[in-house]
Amino acid sequence: MGDLPVRRLVIDAAIPTKNVSIVDVARALYSIEGVKAVRVTVDDVDVDVLGLMIVVEGDKIDVDEVQGAIEKVGGVVHSLDEVVVGDYIPEVARE
Amino acid sequence: MRYLTLGLLDGIITSVSLTSSLLLRSEALGIRDAVSIALVVAAVNALTVFLAEYSHQRSSLRDLEYKLALRSTGKIMRSLVHRRALAGSARSAAYNFAASLAGASFILLPSAISTRLGLIALIAAVAASSAALARSPEEFGEWLLMIGVSAAVGFLVGQIFPIAG
Question: In whole angstroms, how far apart are CA B77 and each of A27, A43, B62, B74, B133?
Answer without folding.
Answer: 20, 25, 8, 6, 36
